[in-house]
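Hi F.,

I've been meaning to write this up properly since the lab meeting, where we talked about keeping a consistent format for the predictions we share between groups. The idea is simple: the sequence comes first, exactly as it goes in, then the structure tokens exactly as they come out, then a line or two of notes. No screenshots and no reformatting. I'm using this chain as the first example so we have something concrete to point to.
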Amino acid sequence: MPIGGLLGIVFPIGSFIAFYLIFFGIVSVTHIQPFITLNTLILLSIAPNFFILRFYYNTKDKEITGKGMLLASLALIILFFIFVHKARLGTLPGLMP
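Output, unedited:
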């Protein structure tokens, strides 16, 4: 379960960086502002966890790791809505305010 929890926290960080670079690249190349905010990008970065979670449940048969990832993913979503969604975040370059 600790490994699943760690994976459930590390993957969204990597996903956030990848999605940010993709959207920043789109903005810098096309000079068109995409309709995405920082809050949307944060929630979008948690979504790949559920595909990786399915991989651990079905192909690896590692239920304890999958449960840890599920718990970490749900905790991140709940913490997002408690702390981040109410507070206005500063925008990153290339994203809408």
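Notes:
The chain has one domain: 2-84.
Residues 2-84 form one domain.

If this format works for you, I'll send the rest the same way.

G.
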